[in-house]
Each structure stands twice: as structure tokens, then as C-alpha cells.
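Table 4 source record.
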Amino acid sequence: MYVSGNQVSNAMPLVLGIAGPECAGAIVKAIVENIRSLNNHTTAGEIGLRYVLQALSDAGRSDVIYDMLSRTDVPSYGYQLSRGATSLTEAWDTDPNESQNMFMLGEAEEWFYKALAGIGSDPDAVGFDRIMIKPEPVGDVKWCTASYRSVRGPISSHWEIVDRDLHLTVAIPPNTTATVFIPASSIDAVTEGGHAAAESEGLKLLRVESGRAVFAAASGTYNFISRGFKR
């Protein structure tokens, strides 16, 4: 752990690259254990919350983030809603003496785009010339749709769960490529446009890892179905 071992003290070294990769697993475990011990609450304020969310997201622990965002008691977004807030308040407890319309605590929006919808830039990209689509369905969320107007053109991701199948539609702008991660039980369970995804035009199967089929995709619009999807 770092410093006092609180959520922000541990998350910042991970996100900023201070912690060595050999320590990452243990630090993420410590963050998760702390959050779980507090009934899925955060101890972060407006400065540190982004690092906590990003550290969890980078570690593939969107399940923990979902549990945090689903709380309705203080401190939580749900508590703000229960107090009648229609925009973010400056303080977790919606103190009426503080601002009732702030960006403070708004870092969850980044998770909505990058993890829940899965839209992101490849770490080695220049101006979104390489894109990552890596949606993370969690909790009881049944659908998600998002779009981002990049300098290369609009990027969009829409997924929904129908019965036990995951339907994913993505749009990749011209003059770009994308790496698409599709939650799947096996490569044989994934189709695109009604055909085996591995044989679909514009797609190349790269690998299967950690319950996901990973494809390289040229620009265009793709309609994937992952049969028998399990969260």
C-alpha cells in the first residue's frame, strides 16, 4: 500500500505509473477490499475520485464501480438524486451551503464512455487513428449506447442484451482502425452481419483472452452477436 492505504493513496500510483507492474494486483486487491469493507462506498473527493475509478476500470473491475455507483446512501450519486439534485452538487452530502451545480464528482462520466460503452483511444494512437472498443456489461444494465465525435469522425457503440445474447453495434470512422473486444463464451459464438465473425469482411481475429474475442477492424459499421453471453 501507499501512505495510509486509503483508496486514493493506492489508486494514484497505479494510474500515474509510479507503482511497478508486479505490485498492481496487490494494490487493486487492497482498493477493492477497502471499498467492500465500506459497503461499496468511496472515501474519495472530487480530486481523487477519478483515480479510484480509473484504477478499477484499468484492472477490469467495473463490477466494483457499478456497485459503488448503485448506492443511494451518502456518499453516492444516488443520494444526490434522492435529495432532489438535478445536477451534480459540490459535496457528497448535498450541503445547501455549497454549490448545487458543479462538475465536482463528475468523473463517473468517463467510465460511462470508456468502460460501460467501451469507447477509447488505443494507448499508442495519434489523434484517434487507432481506436479501442471494449464494452463491459455489468450488474443489471441491459443496454448502453454512446457516441464520441473524434477528430477522425464519429465513433459509436451500442449494446443490448436480448435473452442470453449480447448484440453489439459499433461504428468506426474512415481512415482509422479499431481493436474490438467482444465478451464471448467462445469464438464460435460470435457472428457479424449474420456470418461467423472470424470470416467477416473488414475483421481479423487476433486472439481470444479472458472471456473476450478480440478482432482488428477496418473502418465501417459492424453488427456483432455473442450467443449465450454470460456476465
